[in-house]
Amino acid sequence: MPDHYLNAQAIRENAHSLAATLGIDTEEAEELLQAHALVTVDESVPSNVFLCEQVSKLLARTLESASHHVDSGIPAVEIIIGQIPPRSAAPTIWVSSDGDTACISRQRASLPGVQEIHPALLVVVACYVAAAALRVAIGDSLPFPDHDPLILDLKSLGLTLDVTSRQVDLGRTYLAGAGAIGNGYLWALRWFDVRGQLDVVDFDIVKKGNLNRQLWFRESDVGLSKAERLVGRAQASFSHVKLLPRVDRLQDLPEKKDDPRWLRRLIVGVDSRMARRSLQSEIPGEVFDASTTDIREIVLHFNCQPSRQACLGCIYPPDDLETGRTLDIALALGVTIKDVQEGVISPMAAQMILARYPDRGLTAAALEGEAYDSLFKALCAKAALRTESGRQVFAPFAFVSVLAGALLAIETVRRLGGGDANFNLWKISPWSPFIPRLRRQVPAIPTCPICGETVFRNTAQQLWG
Length: 465
What we know:
The longest helix has 19 residues, at 119-137. This protein has helices at 8-22, 26-32, 46-59, 119-137, 161-164, 180-189, 226-234, 273-280, 312-315, 320-333, 337-341, 347-356, 364-367, 372-381, 398-416, 454-464; strands spanning 36-41, 65-67, 77-81, 92-97, 101-105, 150-153, 168-176, 194-201, 241-246, 265-268, 286-293, 297-304, 425-428. By secondary structure, it is of the alpha/beta class.
């Protein structure tokens, strides 16, 4: 039987994302996504089998179904991993590798079958394969460059044998956000020899619409704490890392009152620019960050204090798009802009939202403490919002979020394992090969509302200098 994780709300979220990308209505997008992917694999190579599993899991949260069983349905696309004949008449995607590069092509693979490759790199390859398969399954209508073949320079990601065989000590590290990127981060991090403690911090609960992109979660997790369920699902995959769930905002954790150097290392997987700036204001010693711009782009950012390099405030400054979105959220939910800027819903704001949407089954208990961004996305997915501008926000597909999390995990291990820190910003498309020469060292912005402040710089120097 094919893997199947999507409920009606998660299907709707995928359809909204595709509809917004193609400029079509949601019903038409949902029909396009009612497609089956067949994955054909040369099982003589273990890496082939692992890649097959990863591709199937990603596409099972994107299309109606994905399976390596030929009798699971009429496929809209067949993914062939290795040197093996196709099993259907569907359009094909061929996947091959020589170990240093991976090739994703609509023509028969020119490279050997997938060689023995580190599992985290295979997760990255799987994300690009899923993107290529989606493109074919829906009829080549995506408004992104079509690279055929698409060649991935795996060697450029820096996972040498020296790095992958080394024990990496996380010490005590905090992961802010147990959502899509946090899921993807742990999905890839488990394949490294990491040690220490990772506090998984998130005050939100698993929602039905999360299942299209948050890979560890299942239907039985809906309504439960994201932090607790992510730890519960992932802990068995980490022999030497203690995962500790923290159902709270990172800014409100009690240890910050007792130790000014409490936040030595921070992994950032939250889903708003405003939240990232708030986290940087806590003056962490090291920041490892990944974000997504809907389904178009992934941003990787790193900073270490004290520094004259860009911080999260420099990379994610307030801009017109954020201001417009803040206004949209306020107008849609019937609260003030100041309320939205607080980040989470207060008891008074909860009453205002209930008054705005008395027929949506919302309750004060569920709303209080909820992030405005999360509620806004959830109501957008249900098409329940009444906005002045008509703008809505939709979550990315699973392979976009997992790619962001996997690349973040790889960079975490590479840097903590002694690799160089020769860039602090890298923007990557899930639809095009990643380009190493686009890595940048971006300096701090003098007018940054965070690191541009004398108090921040002086405190960072005292804490981490």
